[in-house]
Amino acid sequence: MSEDWPPLPEFIQTLRCDLRPFRTADADEVYAYRRDAEIVRYLQVAQPFRREDADVFVATQVLSDWRTRCVWAVEQDGRVVGGVSLRIASWKRRAEVGYELARWLWGRGLMTEAVSAVIDEAFGRLPIIKITATATAANVRSIRLLEKLGMQREALLRQHWVHGRRVLDEVRYGVLREEWNQFAAARSEQLRNQIS
Ligand SMILES: CC(C)(COP(=O)(O)OP(=O)(O)OC[C@H]1O[C@@H](n2cnc3c(N)ncnc32)[C@H](O)[C@@H]1OP(=O)(O)O)[C@@H](O)C(=O)NCCC(=O)NCCS
Fold this sequence. Notes:
By secondary structure, this protein is an alpha+beta fold. The chain has a single domain, classed as Aminopeptidase. The chain is about 35% helix and about 30% strand. It contains six helices and eight strands, in the order E-E-H-H-H-E-E-E-H-E-H-E-E-H. It has an eight-stranded mixed beta sheet, with helices on both faces. Helix 1 (about 25-35) packs across helix 3. The model has no long low-confidence stretch (mean pLDDT about 95).
């Protein structure tokens, strides 16, 4: 049974990007980064990703129920370059995070920043116990991102993911509220030291 939790904010600002709900007009920009086979390699989406798939993608996000599935478009310099999603299961007091970023921006810590801001909001505003994430074991960038956020590997599911002709292992990560509080405190301390 779903509990009546307040909705998370639709607009979140981080140091380098703006997070806001997807709009129908974003399809061209989504297509510009999702047409890259490397981006969708480990995602359960149509491959190759066509222009019409981008229309379906944004329409799905626009129609999504914000109380149970928040999906933020990640905007940089006024352009949509990725997304962060949070599926909220209030009856389990748990949420699952997902993310993707245009390849031309990889390796700059941008998505770590965006996901971190979403987790801050989720733990800050909702009585969630744990936030989880799922990746294929081969998705080393995604796994590194989760570990940078202090997430713990909780499971390895062998040959769990069928993607076209590939059969892949899946890993599950999680971070508990108290772990996140410690992580956030250490992060603030680090920032203070950098400034002083
Ligand atoms: C996963 C993704 C969002 C990461 O974005 P990003 O902006 O590159 O992430 P970050 O820069 O914050 O962190 C990536 C880390 O992976 C590391 N990395 C890159 N290539 C690596 C490799 N081959 N092996 C190990 N680590 C690697 C980077 O060095 C970086 O770590 P560092 O900051 O300690 O140097 C991006 O790669 C993406 O959109 N992938 C496609 C969609 C996807 O797979 N989403 C996740 C589904 S679970």
